[in-house]
Amino acid sequence: MSAESSFYVTDGTVPRDAASYVARNADTELLQSLLAGEFCYVLNTRQMGKSSLSVRTIAALQEKGVKTAFLDLTRCGGQNVATAVVLGLGGRDGQCPQST
User: Fold this and answer.
1) By CB neighbour count within 10 A (0-12 exposed, 13-18 middle, 19+ buried), where does 62 fall?
2) Is this prediction's pTM over 0.70?
């Protein structure tokens, strides 16, 4: 893979050490809020950098000795996020619950 082609990420999560990543105010704000003990959501439309932001923030937290967990609720569809988290974590197989 050439240096030019490895610079660009056209689909999916941008690696945390990628030279092409453009840090935003959200990077600093999210990290500082989490370090202050605040509960944070990362919400946006598709392909807007949520996963890339999360990967970089998780790495920064882990470097500071913070234990982290990442919950991907994309398979939970239109369910209320809080309900999906509670029911999903309580499930035996770790899968999102089926809606009834």
Assistant:
1) exposed
2) no
Question: Residue 31 corresponds to which tokens in the numbers above?
Answer: 């990290």
Q: Name, in order, each residue with C-beta under 8 angstroms of 96's C-beta and a sequence gap of 6 or more.
A: 73, 75, 76, 77, 79, 84, 87, 88
What is the widest separation between alpha-carbon atoms in the chain? 50
Contact 62, 68 (CB under 8 A): yes
Q: Please report, in tens digits, the pLDDT of each residue of the chain (100 residues total).
A: 444 457 777 777 777 777 777 888 988 999 999 999 998 888 777 777 788 888 889 999 999 999 988 777 666 655 566 665 655 555 545 555 555 5
CB 99 within 8 Å of CB 84: no
